[in-house]
Input
Amino acid sequence: MKHKHRVISFIISFCLLLALASCSSLKKNNQSTFNQSEKLELDENDAPFLKSPKIRKYWQNDRIEGKKFIKGHWIYEIEEQPVWMQQ
Output
């Protein structure tokens, strides 16, 4: 009887874990990125498009500033803001 109870508890725990994992992956996939395409279409069919912003990416080397060591990292800078455009 104890073995049957353990199996049922394991199955229920596994199903809950699977449901929780699928919810967190859905949340990650629904995030939108606006720099993937030239035109961004809004939800409504008759709405105008947004042109994606221009982003500049550059590498900042390791450096020392006084008592601080700053490890190398990428810097992303917006050069042009998104703008409305006609089709």
In short: Residues 24-34 have pLDDT under 50 and may be disordered. The longest strand covers residues 73-80. The helical segments are 2-29. The CA atoms of residues 60 and 73 lie 5 Å apart.
